[in-house]
Amino acid sequence: MDEQLRIGLVGAGPWAHGVHAPGIADHPGTTLTTVWARRPDAARELAESHGASVSSTLEELLGQVDAVAFAVPPAVQAELALEAAKAGKHVILEKPIAPDLAAAEQLTDAVVSAGVASLVVFTLRYAVETREWLEDLAAVGGWTGGGARWLSGALLAGPYSASPWRHDSGALADVGPHVVDLLDAALGPITDVLAAHRSPQDLWQLVFAHEGGATSTATLSMNLPIEPSVTEIAVYGEHGYRALQRRPVPGVERFTALLDDFAAMIATGTTTHPCDVRRGLHVQRILHRVLQVAGA
């Protein structure tokens, strides 16, 4: 790109501080132009630390940028990203993209109708090791099953333990999108939820059916005293067992890779990507089905 992509950041919480703002500010193809958040003092502190301005309204932010990155709860994002898309701004969306399926469908329709680029922050999908793992699985084939475990104490202590929406929606909404996305990408599209159970302590046990006959399981919790967190995903079949080997790198590294793709999409006029808003909607449909099966 001849000029840096001007990005506005909506939100000034821990994830915005640790990932969004430094990622956008330090990327060679983007510039953090302005920040808007419901807490003006937090927005000002974040903006000043990265040489950005502070917007007093969403409308003010939209008037200064080419794209908007969201670091806010799903219900807030669904409403504000809708306005950004209607204003013709490209969007970087957190997962899940909305609080429910209806809102996710509405947001997706708006983004597609506007013809803007979109990416969802499925952070693991932008890691080199994940891309290589998925490419290898696709090349070999013959996978009949898989499983994932994502267990942590993130809601017991730490920077996200005071997040109301995470406590209200639990592990399914926060880490569930990552697990669903990876299992779906590894074994083929999830076509049904065969079983779903949530304990009173928010421990989820899930069983998925995939196109082509494969099945997978997932165990999720953010309320277990486990340090460090357990994040495991693997598939198995006629060629053995293949686990995703994750490097212990900060989230901002993967966000930088996301920005590489985002800037390239806009420079080339591309609006489709394996992790665009349509992918976010697909994952949201599966989460919706999980809640139906669990009777939640």
From TrEMBL:
<dbReference type="InterPro" id="IPR055170">
    <property type="entry name" value="GFO_IDH_MocA-like_dom"/>
</dbReference>
<keyword id="KW-0560">Oxidoreductase</keyword>
<protein>
    <submittedName>
        <fullName>Predicted dehydrogenase</fullName>
    </submittedName>
</protein>
<dbReference type="InterPro" id="IPR036291">
    <property type="entry name" value="NAD(P)-bd_dom_sf"/>
</dbReference>
<dbReference type="InterPro" id="IPR000683">
    <property type="entry name" value="Gfo/Idh/MocA-like_OxRdtase_N"/>
</dbReference>
<feature type="domain" description="GFO/IDH/MocA-like oxidoreductase">
    <location>
        <begin position="161"/>
        <end position="240"/>
    </location>
</feature>
<dbReference type="InterPro" id="IPR050463">
    <property type="entry name" value="Gfo/Idh/MocA_oxidrdct_glycsds"/>
</dbReference>
<dbReference type="Pfam" id="PF01408">
    <property type="entry name" value="GFO_IDH_MocA"/>
</dbReference>
<dbReference type="GO" id="GO:0016491">
    <property type="term" value="F:oxidoreductase activity"/>
</dbReference>
<dbReference type="Pfam" id="PF22725">
    <property type="entry name" value="GFO_IDH_MocA_C3"/>
</dbReference>
<feature type="domain" description="Gfo/Idh/MocA-like oxidoreductase N-terminal">
    <location>
        <begin position="5"/>
        <end position="118"/>
    </location>
</feature>
<dbReference type="GO" id="GO:0000166">
    <property type="term" value="F:nucleotide binding"/>
</dbReference>
